[in-house]
Amino acid sequence: MLVVMQAHATEEQVRAVCQKIESLGYRAHPMPGAQRTAVCVTGNKGEVEAGTLEELPGVQELIRVSKPYKLVSRDFKEENSVISFPGTDASFGGSGLAIIAGPCAIESRDQAFAAAERVCRAGAQFFRGGAYKPRTSPYSFQGLEEEGLQIMAAVRDKFGMKIVTEAIDKESLKLVAQYADVIQIGARNMQNFSLLKCAGRARRPVLLKRGMSATLEEFLMAAEYVMSEGNYNVILCERGVRTFADHTRNTLDLSLVPAVQRLSHLPIIVDPSHGTGKRNKVTPLSRAAVAVGADGLIVEVHPEPDKALSDGMQSLYPDQFDELMAQVRQIAPVVGRTVPGIGVRTRLSQAAPAIASPATRIS
Ligand code: PEP
Ligand code: MN
Fold first, then answer.
1. Rounded to an integer, what distance in angstroms lies between the CA atom of residue 351 and that of residue 52?
2. Nearest ligand 1 atom, CA 184
3. CATH of residue 55
4. Ligand 1 centroid to 250 CA: how many Å?
5. CA quadruple 41, 47, 51, 52: dihedral sign
6. 159 and 51 assigned to the same domain
7. In this structure, which residue's CA is closest to atom 1 in ligand 1?
8. Residue nearest to atom 3 of ligand 1 (CA)
9. How many CB atoms lie within 10 A of CB 200?
10. Domains held by the chain: number
11. Are residues 50 and 88 in the same domain?
12. pLDDT digits (tens, 9 = 90+) for 84-128
């Protein structure tokens, strides 16, 4: 159920509606929009008792939401959600593309700093790297755990990039939420509902990767889990799905991007590294992702991919990432998007980066 407030409804009236909803034993999620505020009602087992709500001052109408997802839906919020990081030019869902880059796993301080130096110089606003790695084999490198998080925090201090790293369970989520700017929930955990609920209670944006066989609806329902706990800062990520095709590790489903944008206000980025599993396909698919309207990219880059402890085959050499960024810079303006400039992070303290004015945003 959606309670749509009148355009001129006061904050007090919105608050009174929320209080009424809570007193009925439901949860209220107010979402101010450009035209009006809508309050989504969740937690109801059956139909919400509409009568009392309809009569409250400032209420325009009640809309029953027939879709299983509510908070992620454009019915709830018409305009695109933008997740920004105060004091920086980094954001998800605005006119600027979000560029996340770094190694699959944090292996050592030297490796992380070498990768960070290059991706930062190339323009990435976010540094990625796993400290907790969900590996297919228990004998593979599992990550440096808290030491890895400390290295990432040192990268943030030195380069000014925001930190994106994965939580694999409740314990790691607690620590990740302390160190990271964005909590990643991986494909293997997309339907780990108790972990999603915990992420929904964390006070950090959540980067939610699509499960490797998840439908669009299952993906949106996973985001709904996070939002239903009160964390509305969710970024979706297409990272490829399992198909019969064996020329790539996964099949990158770029059609998901416009499909999501039609139904949801949430930002969606693309991971061409896990999406293809092959280094030589990462740059072409990055171009395609930007062209199709993705809000950003997450790309694996390693200073020495041949020595990587995980996902070396799909990790770019730093020079290749420079080239990827150069190509993305050419595609982005065609679809009305901007890309952070070269070396912007290190210059941020001296001057604001020069960013071209956005044209129309495709959605
Ligand atoms: C990753 O980004 O390092 C990762 C493990 O990705 P995914 O969950 O998409 O496999
Ligand atoms: Mn990886």
1. 54
2. 2
3. 3.30.70.1140
4. 12
5. negative
6. no
7. 104
8. 104
9. 19
10. 2
11. no
12. 999 888 999 999 999 999 999 999 999 999 999 999 999 999 999
- pTM of this prediction exceeds 0.85: yes
The answer to whether residue 74 sits within a structural domain is no
* 38 and 153 part of one domain: no
Could you say which DSSP state residue 88 is in?
Answer: S
Q: Do 353 and 258 share a structural domain? A: yes
DSSP codes joined into one string, 301-324: B-SSGGG-SS-GGGPBPHHHHHHH
* Whole-angstrom distance, CA of residue 72 vs CA of residue 69: 6
Residue 249 and residue 314 in contact, taking contact as beta carbons nearer than 8 Å = yes
226 and 291 share a domain? Answer: yes
Helix (H) or strand (E) holding 117: helix 109-122
The string of pLDDT tens digits covering residues 198-227 is 999 999 999 999 999 999 999 999 999 999
Q: Interior CA angle at 164 toward 235 and 140, to 5°?
A: 115
- 68 is a domain residue: no
Instruction: Tell whether 206 and 276 lie within a shared domain.
Output: yes
